Amino acid sequence: MYLTNRFFWFAGAVIALFGVSYPLGWLFPLAQTGLAALIFLTSGDLFVLFYRRPQVGARRNTASIFSLGDPNTVIISVENMSSLNLHASITDELPVQFQIRNFSISQWLAPGEKYFLEHKLTPLSRGTYRFGHINIFVTTRLGLAERRLKEWKEEEVRVYPSIIQMKRFELRATKQIAHETGVKKMRRLGHSYEFEQIKNYVPGDDYRSVNWKASGRRGTIMVNQYEDERSQQIYCLIDKSRVMRMPFEGLSLMDYAINTSLAISNIVLKKQDKAGLITFSDVIGATIKAERKAGQLNKILEALYKEKERKGEANYELMYEAMSRLINVRSLLLLFTNFESHYALERALPTLRRLNRQHLLVVVFFENTEIRKLAGEPVEKTTDIFRQTIARQFLLDKREMVYKLRQYGIQAVLTRPQDLTLDTINKYLELKSRGLI
User: Fold this and answer.
1) Could you give the CA distance from residue 90 to residue 71 in angstroms, rounded to a whole number?
2) Residue 183: band (very low, low, confident or very high) from pLDDT cuts 50, 70, 90
3) More confident residue, 427 or 184
4) pLDDT tens-digit map of 345-371
5) Residue 224: what pLDDT?
6) How far, in whole angstroms, is CA 315 from its chain's centroid?
7) Do residue 335 and residue 412 come from a single domain?
8) Is beta strand 411-415 parallel, antiparallel or unpaired with respect to 360-366?
9) Hey, which residues does 277 pair with through a beta bridge?
10) Are residues 283 and 374 in the same domain?
């Protein structure tokens, strides 16, 4: 049993009335009446709540898997199986990872009715999340006392790399477009020369694809249709060293890279290419050979789910040796890492150049959006000028790193963490349409 705020407001008013009745004796009977009314109404409220025993049930409906960094829907169904009009305050014991201590949903429950109350949770780390019990605090229309009903609904969900994001980008990649704010449509550059079929000419077909022999035999214009080359190997290389622990909007850079790796692996497999994975830091982590088997995506998903950041520096030479043993044909390598200084890039550059001679290497690293925001703030004091100058120098260094990599023929993508998936997919589609892989 719990006494509500309304009870204490009522009791406070009665106490104040008793206090005022000392100098004003004629208020004393009114204070006594108020006290009697409070006791009578509270007793009646408790009688309804505990003697008549209102039956209210609740059930939590969640997916068995949550997507990292995305709003995941949780539905709590509440049913009033009694004949009373009740007000329910539902408190779900959320997993400790969310650090939400004031979660509550209020709802009036009509007799015999069932309600579905929806809320969303956004996990910011991978792992197992444990939900506790569902507590239902019910009150009558008087609202002076409430009774807690507990539903024993403990359950666990696992937070995986973003499956929601993976599905969202799948259709866009298939249609070769990227409808996002500030991003233009993906333009297809040329075509590959893997023959698919001969078909009738329709306006808009490339004149260079006209098959003159077939046109002569059929008496109408026929064109050759080509498709993207298949069975090419695409590897995601994820740096999980300390430089990838930097958080942006709650997610670390490594988590952004993991979400992107899952999305791009799915698109690679849909394009009939082979998807693989290598994670590294001061040690080699997961190594999955590029395949196109039915369970390849689930294999990559499980490997990404288990990966953790490490505190050491990235060892690019060790990564190169592991790749030499694992990859025996020319492949597209998508390297997700982060360089915060020219010195860090210079250390890794010899290994990156060797990789690029044997494979097609794309280095994907991150723009610091907080520094970008700082560089655009209005200047009010002299210290703001110094701060902005340093911030703009950091931004300039990042752009110079891109130019440095391109100088040596290495493809480079500098992107905001929020745009990582979109920019990586566009880069893959661009390289594929240009026939570079």
Assistant:
1) 20
2) very low
3) 427
4) 999 999 999 999 999 999 999 998 888
5) 80
6) 28
7) yes
8) parallel
9) 236, 288
10) yes
Cα torsion 161, 181, 391, 377: sign: negative
Round the average pLDDT of the chain to a whole number and report it: 87
Question: Six-digit token pair at 115?
Answer: 């309600």
Q: How far is CA 236 from the centre of its chain?
A: 19
Same domain, 184 and 84: no
Rounded Cα distance between 235 and 200, Å, is 38
Residues 430 and 422: their CA atoms lie apart, in Å, by 12
Contact 293, 193 (CB under 8 A): no
**CA–CA dist 279, 9 (Å, integer):** 61
Name the token pair of 166: 């993976």
Three-class secondary structure of residue 435 per DSSP = coil
Q: Is the pLDDT of residue 284 over 60?
A: yes
Q: Which H or E element spans position 266?
A: helix 253-270
CATH number at 246 reads 3.40.50.410
In the chain, the number of structural domains is 4
pLDDT cut 70: percent of the chain above it? 93
Domain boundary at 30, 51, 72, which? 51
218 and 338 co-located in one domain: no
Pairwise CA distance, residues 144 & 140, whole Å: 8
Residue 361 shares a structural domain with residue 316: yes
Contact 208, 218 (CB under 8 A): no
pLDDT tens-digit readout, 404-430: 999 999 999 999 999 999 999 999 988
Enumerate the β-bridge partners of residue 225. Answer: 197
Are 174 and 266 contained in the same domain? Answer: yes
The reply to whether 146 and 168 lie within a common domain is no
Residue 213: which domain range?
200-225
Q: What's residue 14's pLDDT?
A: 92
Distance CA 287, CA 308 (A): 14
